[in-house]
Structure prediction request, 156 residues.
Amino acid sequence: MVLALEDARTAGEREPADVPIGAVVLDESGAVIARAANRREADEDPTAHAEILALREAARARGRWNLSGCTLVVTLEPCTMCAGAIVLSRVDRVVFGAHDPKAGAAGSLYDLVREPRLNHRVQLTAGVREQECGDLLREFFRARRRRSRVLPQNLA
Prediction:
């Protein structure tokens, strides 16, 4: 989770700033095979979530789409798009930090990663460094709200 948090911070600090979410993929031995941070704003791509980018990189590193045996570590509970990609890529385990009650698809709003009607279910560990992951997101959005309340000089 430390590496995922590092990546999340870089996403929030670059221009244009992205929501600070980071993801890391580990192979069966625990070695890091992929890392990514959100790049939706930077790439102008609605699918450029940290999880999707990390899964793509991991697939390239392994030379196959099937990520059986891998663990995905992410700072925020995956959304429905990311949860679907996790299931389809056959990731064995997901570890996430902060819960996402508005869009989470790994137990909060939905539980797509453990849906019994699907052909693959993921082991789930939730709430790892939850406070730190949540604080990073809360501060990002707090700062964004403060900036949006400041009027431009020519309108003041």
